[in-house]
Amino acid sequence: MDQAFIEATKEPSTTFLMAKFDGILGLGFQEISVDNAAPLWYNIVNQSLVKEPIFSFWFNRDATEGVGGEVVFGGTDRRHYKGEHAYVPITQKGYWQFDMEDVLLGGQTTGFCSGGCSAIVDSGTSLIAGPTTVITQINQKIGADGVVNQQCKTVVTQYGEKIMDLLVNKEQPAKICSQIGLCAFDGSQGVSLQIKSVVDKRVEKLVTSSRDNMCAYCEMAVIWMQNQLKLNQSLEQMLDYLNELCERIPNPMGESAVDCDSLSSMPVISFNIGGRSFDLKPEQYILEVSTGDSKQCISGFQAIDVSQGPLWYATVPMIPCDTNATLQLLSSNVASHDCRILGDIFMGVYHTVFDYGKLQIGFAEAA
Fold it and tell me: Which residues form the Peptidase A1 domain (predicted)?
């Protein structure tokens, strides 16, 4: 096949210390390949080794079974999904990125995707990652305990009433935080007054000073208050709600714990994609971790903020190979290989098809 492999000489994340990897098989587009190396999938397609230029993922949510999941190159396995897939076009080659219309908590919009959001489906991420503004609202609804951030509460206390006045007076929301002196304004949105850092080739909003924090929390407060104004809440009610959200901001590692006995009271969380609602029930987005006789429940959502706008990681897919999963190559000679696919929240519920030929991605209920 004449496939080039790239050696990892440095593994900076603690993930590589805790997990057992034989390697990572990247299935993103060549646009983000290191040194522009041709990915394995490109060679498979170019050498006509598959019937169709698609691959698909199924994650087995039943931990008691021996097979952890399946990736099929060249087609799909009809045993692992129900009905038909709903497809959306890829909007940017690199990661498998597409547009998402909204995120809803118990059927109500979070208000953050009103202008549209970008999303990425990635089998290499165990949780669902999204903007801190929305993840904090989710944490509040499910009772997750994140880091109590006093700077967030300071913004609410000192500037909450001013933010409300500006919103009531129809001031452009994107300019509010710069008007009160907490952010600069780049012509389209508020930006931190401090330096931004480039980490792993992704431009991320890296909070490195109290000033950065104040700008970020102000932007969150504006969005939160916009939603509360629509509900005709009083100023006191709004400030109490915003302070409660401040208490739910995720910890620096992005994980938050919940009460295992409270699942029945948690809301359904929905993602509107391609005009269709993809629902996650509490038992699907809460991870139960058992150690001996003790049990802990972890929120399946973590916060990641990027400067280019709202971006969600529904989990380019990667396959860390180990054991107890199957890999199929649909061609005249079907080949299989033992490989563990790390499960993720969204893809565990929805069977996912990556259509390289038509540049689209499809979701169907997993079976």
Answer: 1-364
